[in-house]
Structures are given as C-alpha cells and as structure tokens.
Amino acid sequence: MAPDTVLFDLDSTLCRSTQDDQRIHAQAFARAGVEPFCTPEDVRTVASTITDADTDHEFFRQVFERAAARAGAGSIDAEALARATIALRDPTAVEWRPGAQAALDRARKHANVGLVTNGTRTTQRAKLDTLGIADAFETIVYAADRTEPKPSPAPFETALAEIGASADSALYVGNDYRADVIGAKRAGLTACWIPSERDLDAPADPDHMPDYRFDSPDELTTVL
To answer: CA 145 to CA 143: how far, in whole Å?
Structure first.
C-alpha cells in the first residue's frame, strides 16, 4: 500500500553541496591556526553522533572536540575551528542530488509531503531557497530549532502531528542510517534509506532495518 505521507531529509537526500569538502577542511584549520588532526571523513563520522546541538556553532564545536578526542590530539581550539568552518561554508552552494527532484515531484502528486532536517532554520532555509522548494512542503521541522534532533522520534512526530498523519501510513526518506533510518523506525514510520556515495554501510541492527534501500532517489517512484 502506497504511503499517504512522505517526509524527506534534506542534506545528501534532496540536495548536495557543491563546495569542496577537502578544501574547506584544510582552510578551516589554517584559518583557526590549528594543526590538522583529522580528515573530512573523520568529521562526517563524528558528526553523525552529535544529538544535542541547537546551533551550527555548537554542532561544529562538538564535532571537532570529539574528533580530537578520537585522534588523541589533546587540547585543541574547537571554538576557532567551528567559527572558521561556518565562515567558509556557503549554505546556498547546493544542487539537487541526481534523481531527487523527480522523487519530490512524484511524492507531491501522490501524498502529503514534509521535511524533517537536523539543521537550523537559517542554514536549511537558504538551501531550500536555492533549490526553489521553500514552499514545497506541508510542514518543515528544523530539529535544531524546535525538537531534539534525529534519531530522536520527536521531529518525526512533530511533522506528522502538523500534517495530521499517522506514522503507520507515512514513509521517511533519508541518506543517513543512524539519523534517518533509526529515527524513523523509532517513530513508527516506514523507512527508505538512500545512502550517498559518502555514507557508511549500515550496521547490522535487526530492530532498525530500512524497509527500502535504493541507490538513487528516483527509485522512490516505484513505491509511490
């Protein structure tokens, strides 16, 4: 049975950055005056474990603190690294992930649609404006501003309540196994996992397995 509600993640699901991660990473360390102790891949791995940051600065501060701890780097200036990273990152430098526009268009024709993202309103709204989809959703939950972030069930439950939909007839679409699949399953939704080329393989967790796994967002049209 096709879902009557489809909730989407934003980053790396509907859109992807056009900036060079390696370049931003190197420039952030240079600007902060900190000797590099981790790679962009290390940052992405640690970023998925941050669950209590309510601003972009707090998010990146925690990311660099945890990355330094994992690397045994000792005391580092995480505040300076967070400031430098935010200054260098351009939230308007995004493009559609291939197949994502078709998936969103299809969902809008056949279901209620919403967006559930862990980012802040300011940062994520800039991306939506660039893509021209700020008004494409019945509801948008910016978890960093309103609820506990994914994988908490709170942002999913908030979105469903605002649409007036039930979890058992809703589908969540995301690229991040921990935040998106585990979060959606905790909230009782059907989960569609569409990992990007940068996403790690999902750990074996029989309690939180995706109901669908696709290589590209446009494959979502097979279930709508």
So the answer is: 5
CA distances to 18, 61, 90, 150 from 53, in Å: 24, 9, 20, 11
**DSSP collapsed to 3 states, 137-154:** CCEEEEHHHHCCCCCCCH
Cα distances (angstroms) measured from residue 199 to each of 28, 47, 97, 101 = 23, 12, 14, 20
Q: How many CA atoms lie within 13 A of 224 on its CB side?
A: 26
pTM given for the model: 0.90
- As a whole number of angstroms, the distance between CA 50 and CA 46 comes to 7
Write phi, then psi, for 112 (nearest 5 degrees). Answer: -70, 145
pLDDT by 10-residue block (mean), the chain, 224 residues: 94 96 96 95 84 84 95 95 96 97 97 94 95 98 86 95 97 94 96 85 74 95 91
The torsion angle over the Cα atoms of residues 93, 47, 191 and 147, rounded to 10 degrees, is: -90
* Short-list 116, 63, 97, CA closest to 195: 97
Q: Which residues, at least 6 apart from 203, have a Cβ–Cβ distance to it below 8 Å?
A: 177
- DSSP label at 35? -
Crossing angle for the helix pair 40-47 and 56-71, nearest 10 degrees?
110
Q: What kind and span of H or E run contains 45? A: helix 40-47
**138 and 162 Cβ atoms separated by less than 8 Å:** yes
